[in-house]
Structure prediction request, 155 residues.
Amino acid sequence: MRHFMVTKANALLRYADALDWLAPLAMRLVFGYFWLETGLGKLHNLAVFTERFAGWGIPFPGPSAALSALTDCAGGALLMLGLFTRLITIPMIINMAVAIAVVAIKPVAHLDDFVELDEVLYILVLFWLMMAGPGRVSLDSLLGRALGVGVQRTR
Prediction:
């Protein structure tokens, strides 16, 4: 019975291993769409978004709001494509760090409050994408194979 269970468990693990491309793809598509949609909404309502930046005391609210909205929009599109994934996460993480420092941190009194901020989760997902990369099903991977560059991973 033990041999049967081990054999079946190993078969399931090999099957899951063959699908290791699926989780990064799903994450990039959903998370990227979220940011693309968010950025487009900010761009379409840039005057309102700029007023919010001014109210928060962010310097140069007009250009800052436009840059933030463009970062979300372009970042989301690039994440969905899996193109320049590791690079685009950097300005997106900075965007979220500024959001935490200027707006979201104000009502935080305890660690529990901090870890429940949406921006913290966004930074963690972006950090994971920066460290792990976009996965095999991405334009980054395709370009890497075509150019003969990239990190070889061993198991």
Remarks:
- The two ends are 29 Å apart (CA to CA).
- The mean pLDDT is 93.
- DSSP finds eight helices and no strands in the chain.
